[in-house]
Structure prediction request, 147 residues.
Amino acid sequence: MLQTAAGKEYMKDSNCIFCKIANGEIPSRTIYEDEKFRVILDLGPATKGHALILPKEHYANLFAMPDELAADAMKLAKKVASVQKEKLHADGLNLVQNNGAAAGQTVEHFHIHLIPRYENDGQTIGWKPEEPTSEELDEICRELTEN
Ligand code: 5GP
Ligand code: ZN
Prediction:
């Protein structure tokens, strides 16, 4: 547990680099901070202004996040994205949020990537579309909706 100046205790994993960054033990280029979150510049940015929203409490991924904190994170993403768009004159912006190694997550502390996009920035954030049959899509839909 970490004691903050405000006297609040946070769940913290002592081996987690994002816990240390979010709670100020390791310095970072912080572009926003409040009681629940720190927003930092990514050290390996996809584009100019690529930022990460880090909750100060440790949750490994989206599945572990309390609903309210997840909702707060999305509200904050909208706020920071608007600042990035305006101040960096971004033409677009990707929100990316990886959960699990299979999905590309390398740091197991929940974070949202805010990636400003610029015309012809040369980055690709995407996937190779598959071509499921109509029956396959029906089956997946059934799997996801049956009780
Ligand atoms: P993931 O692949 O887990 O979704 O994203 C992890 C991100 O964290 C990567 O974009 C990587 O560049 C960034 N990152 C890893 N270590 C550090 C660090 O110590 N400081 C900062 N600012 N970014 C980091
Ligand atoms: Zn952590």
Summary: The CA atoms of residues 28 and 40 lie 6 Å apart. Residues 17, 28, 40-44, 52, 98, 104-107 surround guanosine-5'-monophosphate (ligand 1) (CB under 6 Å). The longest strand covers residues 112-117.
